[in-house]
Amino acid sequence: MLWAFLLGYAVGGLPVAYWFGALRGKNLLVEGSGNPGALNAYRVLGPVPGLLVLLLDLFKGVLAVALGEGITGNPVGGLLGGMGAVWGHAFSPWLLFRGGKAIAPGVGVLFAVDPRLFLGALLLFALLWALSRRPYRAALAVALALPLLAAFFGKTPTHLLFGLGVGLPVALRHLKDWDR
User: Fold this and answer.
1) Which residue in 99, 140, 147, 159 is deepest, having the highest Cβ count within 10 Å?
2) pLDDT tens sequence across 27-42
3) In the beta sheet, which residues pair with residue 92?
4) What H or E segment, with its residue span, contains residue 111?
């Protein structure tokens, strides 16, 4: 099972946005908001590279779940692979443990694990954003609520831990943006 997490971590840590920036002569760790994520790629590199980075980051999450489940032959391996992808994106080993906010791979993971979980998180985000008008606070709140959402849809203690494992790195990356 540890292999599922580690494989997911390696896949999630692939710095797609950073590579797109390097191809265009830009360093996303310095320019824009300073993180190698899809939104920063959109801001610094433009809409087409930003959309490609978003799609590839979503795919990293889906791929990590599939690989985790494939190598273990067990759905729990998929949960661990997905958790690894989110941690890998947030703390990329390829970028000395710097990374993005992990929303895009997290969305891919949630969708691959259970589309109802993805829709529940999306609806909660939309509601909180509408009430607060602060997208970063809404994302942080959803990340903190993710263990309960995962347990509600998955109905097992394993899903509760999965929600914690996916929500924690997202929450850690969004804490500094509380005032945005």
Assistant:
1) 99
2) 877 776 678 888 888 9
3) 98
4) helix 103-113
